[in-house]
Design a protein that fits this description.
Length: about 220
């Protein structure tokens, strides 16, 4: 096979895979069949740089959670070696079995990059997470591998993340369209987080906004 033919074939395969990830045969309601669990301030806490007050990295206005962090910030505890974060950490709904779902609307302002905006925490070592949704240069990624939304800045999107623990699968829906089905990563306890958690090549200021957050599960 000539070099040109080989390159063209590789390009065609990449385009096909990109189409499979980004295309949508029609919006669906991923929450159908799930029950919505109570969700209020008793069921989450704010993780933020340990040396600043909460109101310097988080606010809740007119039903919208605003979370921001700087690349120069401290981690969330004095003993942590992780990068800076300001996240809503779901508490009271840690799970080790069943089918669970995170639902919410998110908004990422222009300029935010190199950051995780949502994660399913918990996995088997050496991993720490089962899922990360990251923003790099205006695109939403599954970790650093697959582009789920090519242009994510300055728009509201509806997110559903479904984690089937027994099947070891995670599904990500954006605006009712299935974007990816990923393998689980093991682990004995999981929880959901959203906000901003700095990753590689992080911008100086990182922000995401969230509203209409729900935690759902399929009743046992």
């Amino acid at each position: 096979m000539t070099s040109f033919s080989s390159t063209f074939l590789q390009f065609a395969i990449l385009q096909f895979l990109l189409y499979k990830v980004l295309s949508c045969e029609g919006p669906v309601d991923p929450s159908k069949g799930f029950i919505s669990l109570p969700f209020n301030t008793s069921f989450y806490h704010i993780q933020k740089p340990y040396d600043v007050p909460v109101d310097q990295r988080y606010k809740f206005v007119d039903g919208v959670h605003y979370l921001w962090v700087f690349s120069t910030d401290k981690p969330h505890t004095p003993t942590s070696h992780t990068k800076p974060r300001t996240e809503i950490g779901i508490q009271g709904y840690n799970y080790s079995s069943g089918v669970w779902q995170f639902e919410g609307d998110f908004y990422v302002p222009s300029g935010t990059s190199g950051v995780c905006i949502m994660q399913v925490f918990g996995a088997t070592s050496p991993h720490a997470t089962t899922l990360m949704l990251r923003v790099y240069n205006g695109s939403l990624f599954y970790y650093t591998d697959s582009v789920l939304v090519p242009s994510v800045y300055d728009k509201w999107f509806h997110l559903n993340v479904v984690h089937d623990v027994l099947a070891a699968k995670v599904k990500v829906f954006i605006d009712g369209c299935l974007k990816i089905v990923a393998d689980g990563r093991g682990g004995t306890s999981h929880t959901f987080k959203c906000g901003v958690y700095a990753q590689n090549e992080d911008s100086y200021r990182m922000e995401s906004r969230w509203k209409n957050i729900k935690i759902l599960k399929i009743q046992d």
